[in-house]
Amino acid sequence: MIRQNEDKIFCKRCVMDTSIPGVYLDSQGVCNFCHMHDKLDKRFPVGEKGAMILQRIAEKIRNDGRGKKYDCVVGVSGGRDTSYCLYYVKEIMNLRPLAVHFDNGWDSEIAKSNLAKLCDKLDVELHTIIMDWPESRELTNATIRACVPYIDLTDDIGIASSLYRTAVAENVHYIILSHSFREEGITPLMWNYIDGRYTRAIIEQYCKIPLKHFKNVELWDMIYWILWKRIRVINITNYYDDTGEKVETLLKEKFDWQDTGQHHLDNELFTLVYYYARRKFGFDWRVVELSAKVRTGVISRESALKALQEIPFFEDEERIEHCLRKQGISREEFEAIVNAPNKYFTDYPSYYPLLQKFKWFVWILCKLHAIPAHTYEKYFHAI
Ligand SMILES: [Zn+2]
Description:
Layout: H1 32-43, H2 47-64, E1 72-75, H3 80-92, E2 97-103, H4 109-122, E3 125-130, H5 133-145, H6 153-169, E4 174-177, H7 189-192, H8 196-206, H9 219-228, E5 232-235, H10 244-255, H11 270-281, H12 286-295, H13 301-309, H14 317-327, H15 331-339, H16 352-357, H17 359-367, H18 375-381
Parallel strand pairs: 1-2, 1-4, 2-3, 4-5
The structure holds zinc ion.
Zinc ion binds at residues 11, 13-14, 16, 30-31, 33-34.
């Protein structure tokens, strides 16, 4: 199932290349991720059409939320995309959101201050789930010891868990997210596969302390939330193309918002997440976002290829040192893990074989907005 060509051939349209597991080129030299982008681009129109769809969605959410304190839950981090999403939900869609933030102990000071200012000025209540720090740290370290590419696995589970559980507690049927395939691209499945069974397997094998606070997301949790509680997930970012500078200027003017630096650095652990993936696996996360920007015409393919030649922003010794110190991992220990054999989710028990058998069901769930709409493409076309 895992296929990786050693000879690196670049896609003729974006900057993905065939050394990345799951990247295939067609007879024209265009990769499957570009085809996925085109498919999603057709399915999710932007501009006037997108705005109309969002208004219809807003109406549905408002009707469903009548008599409730909130009508939706919005995942926020203090970074650009989630901040704009919260603004859009409140001011443009006229909804009554509850902002939900999962704090794994790595929030940057700028992100924290952004969140406070944003929620205050928008008059939106913020519900922060603060993860127990010794547990949060050990969960990340367990994932590092497992030698898999994505060491932020348990935090993504924590985010999903917080959003769904808050929606259930508030009797809300809609979770609003802000992942954009146009801005952020689609990450190859081997790079950041996530599921509850896989997470459980890593915890059982590598976690050295008992966990009292962490709540995993098992298959039955998902079934309960989706089928019984009828919770839907809407990625509103798919329907608008407000990006880059335009968004930042608005946030700065309206909310005195500050740039958190590179993508995802509202969470400082991401320096280590990116650095580790590139050092140990040769997975350069910049490729995904740069490719997305080339496809949407934000930057040229030439400048993206040039950007890849530069030293990555996450290769900053001081920041990496800080991350390792905070995680309680010595340099020697870290280097030993980097040099140990690489593993992937396919080396651990996971729900993936089951999901493959029920591909059609995943497809239906995507259509129903029961799970993020690009999940089907990501899980079955990006491997
Ligand atoms: Zn491509």
